[in-house]
């Protein structure tokens, strides 16, 4: 299972989080987010996959950040088109498309994006495009049948271990951690993060 820690900003916190057991680290390039990364941190992870999170950004802005931060993936969290996903994929970027799920029919749109993405991420609906601290109804994913693996996001916290241990879907391949592990927006509680990841990676999933 992949563990992604998102919303990182501070060089010292990034360095510490790199030792937490996470596999991917996310940086948010959405200016309205309190976790927005406006400048290049003095330290970036050397051993984790780097993910840039964007909300309705244009192609040139995304590509600029891919080059500046040496991103492995771009995560698109807004109303981006399949065509933009295709262009980014053709440029060599890994593409993660996020979908906020309210009802089962919301999953139908994934079919349009699947040819141009590597992963999907399913999250809780929020005007702030993520970081809501709230969990959506995971039963909505009972009807998801692929063809891409997905990350589970939205409201995950140290108290989520039991519910995650019971969750099953053959296409589920990871989790996305953010606000539930923060001291402040953009600053993670490293001991809590490490404890949770260690527990999660021992689950029989």
UniProtKB/TrEMBL annotation:
Pathway: Amino-acid biosynthesis; L-tryptophan biosynthesis; L-tryptophan from chorismate: step 3/5. It is an enzyme of class 5 (isomerase). Its EC number is 5.3.1.24. Keywords: Amino-acid biosynthesis, Aromatic amino acid biosynthesis, Isomerase, Tryptophan biosynthesis. The keyword Isomerase applies. Gene3D superfamilies: Aldolase class I. Residues 3-198 form the N-(5'phosphoribosyl) anthranilate isomerase (PRAI) domain. It comes from the Bacteria. GO terms for biological process: L-tryptophan biosynthetic process. CDD domains: PRAI. Pfam families: PRAI (PF00697). The keyword Isomerase applies. PANTHER family: N-(5'-PHOSPHORIBOSYL)ANTHRANILATE ISOMERASE. This is N-(5'-phosphoribosyl)anthranilate isomerase. It comes from Phocaeicola coprophilus DSM 18228 = JCM 13818.
